[in-house]
Amino acid sequence: MTTNHAQALYVPARPFALAIDRWIWVFMAAFFIAITLAGFIPDSLGKLAMVRAGARPPFPPILHVHAVLMGAFLLLLLTQAWLMATGRRDRHMLLGRAAFVLVPAIVVVGFILVPTIYQQVWNGAQAAPPPVREQLRQTLHFLDNIALLQTRIGIFFPLCIVLALRARHADPGFHKRMMFLAVATPLQAAMDRIAWLPTTAPVSPLSTDLYTLLAVSPLFVWDVARHRTVHRAYLVWLGLYLPFAVAVHLLWDTPGWHALVPRILGP
């Protein structure tokens, strides 16, 4: 009696592992939403209190548009993960077309929002009394560095989404991983607002990069444990991320960067 060698080596996945394979994507999408809420809700409530007290100007309308678009994208990600987990692939593919509208809108609105916020603080600094003016100048100094992170997000996020969407038919595994990895970069804005997290800011953006890696670590750890290898999507993502990270660290808080930003973002 002979035994096929391939059959002898094949060990079927346990039901528990198969369930995690399906539902970890739902968990990750919910986790990303939780990070967003943990960062933005307390921060927004604090700023709203300052607006009511007359300590800062009202939020510009473009900020609300940006919040709605990003919220819609995160809910789309959660819905897409749930549809695949429940075996509704046709609906997943149909709803996925919304990304072709949402992503360009997010990028365009984001690039409008950055100079809008900068100019709002700039104009406030010109009209403020001397003590407040100095505080606002320090805020502008900080916003110069934040513009580095925002520029990275504005380029890196759509680049990863394009790679993910191009692979949706030929390589579904790459597609779903890259979609989630793409979202990790915009999450930096939320993670940097979680007050109880240790941070290296404003001295260095190192903590921002480390928290980005931490945010995707549950998916990465499960992938490696489950498949005993590192999926190509992580290597592509990291290969793209590292040059951006190096550029941000090299330019962070340099005199040349502080001289350049007002020329680009100032009124």
Task: Walk me through the structure.
79% of the residues lie in helices and 0% in strands. The protein has eleven helices and no strands. The N terminus is likely disordered. It has 267 residues and is mainly alpha-helical. The termini are far apart. The chain has one domain. Keywords: Membrane, Transmembrane, Transmembrane helix.
Biggest sheet architecture: none
User: Count of DSSP helices?
Assistant: 11
Quaternary state reads: single chain
Poorly predicted parts: 1-11
State the order of secondary-structure elements, H for helix, E for strand.
HHHHHHHHHHH
Give the total of beta strands.
0
Keywords: Membrane, Transmembrane, Transmembrane helix
Transmembrane segments: 23-42, 62-83, 95-118, 146-166, 234-252
Explain the layout of strands and helices.
Blueprint: H1 5-9, H2 15-52, H3 61-85, H4 89-95, H5 99-127, H6 130-166, H7 172-184, H8 188-191, H9 206-227, H10 232-251, H11 255-265
Keyword list:
mainly alpha, 267 residues
Give a short synopsis of this structure.
By secondary structure, the protein is mainly α. The chain has eleven helices and no strands. The model is unreliable at 1-11 (pLDDT under 50).
